TrEMBL record:
UniProt KW Lyase keyword: yes
Its EC number(s): 4.2.1.17
Family: Belongs to the enoyl-CoA hydratase/isomerase family.
Pfam families found in the cross-reference section: ECH_1
Record lineage: unclassified sequences, metagenomes, ecological metagenomes
Keyword field: Lyase
InterPro entries: ClpP/crotonase-like_dom_sf, Enoyl-CoA_hydra/iso, Enoyl-CoA_hydra_C, Enoyl-CoA_Hydratase/Isomerase
Name this polypeptide is given: Enoyl-CoA hydratase
Enzyme class: lyase
Residue runs in coiled coils: none
Organism: hydrothermal vent metagenome
One GO MF term attached to the UniProt entry: enoyl-CoA hydratase activity
Length: 108
C-alpha cells in the first residue's frame, strides 16, 4: 500500500526485502552463480513435475483458497503416480541420478 500511495522508489536490496526479487547479486559473477544454482536445481527436477507446476500456477490465479487447495492436491496426486515419480523414487533408493535429470552445462 505504502509503495502504491507514495510512488516510493527502492533499490535492489529493498526490492529483495519487500519480496519483489528472490535473489540479489553484487555483480555479474554473482548473478551467474545464482543462475547456475537455479539451473542445477530445476534441471534436477522431473520435467513433467515442472510442467505441471507451471500449469497449476496458471490455473490458480484469482481462484478462491478452497479451489487452489483442490487443484494443488489433484496436481500432486497426478505427479505421485506418474512414471517420473516412480523413476525418481527408484533412483533415490538405488543411489543414482534419475534418467530424466539433466546435468547443467557451464556457460562460457
Amino acid at each position: 500500500r505504502r509503495l502504491m500511495l507514495t510512488a516510493a522508489r527502492f533499490d535492489g536490496a529493498q526490492s529483495h526485502e519487500l519480496g519483489f526479487a528472490d535473489f540479489i547479486a553484487d555483480d555479474v559473477a554473482g548473478l551467474e552463480a545464482i543462475e547456475m544454482q537455479l539451473r542445477k536445481q530445476i534441471l534436477g527436477c522431473a520435467p513433467g513435475a515442472i510442467a505441471g507446476t507451471k500449469e497449476l500456477l496458471g490455473q490458480i490465479t484469482g481462484k478462491p483458497r478452497e479451489e487452489v487447495i483442490r487443484l494443488a492436491a489433484e496436481n500432486f496426486a497426478d505427479r505421485m503416480v506418474s512414471d517420473e515419480s516412480k523413476e525418481g523414487i527408484a533412483s533415490f533408493f538405488e543411489k543414482r541420478r534419475p534418467k530424466w535429470a539433466v546435468k547443467p552445462e557451464r556457460r562460457s
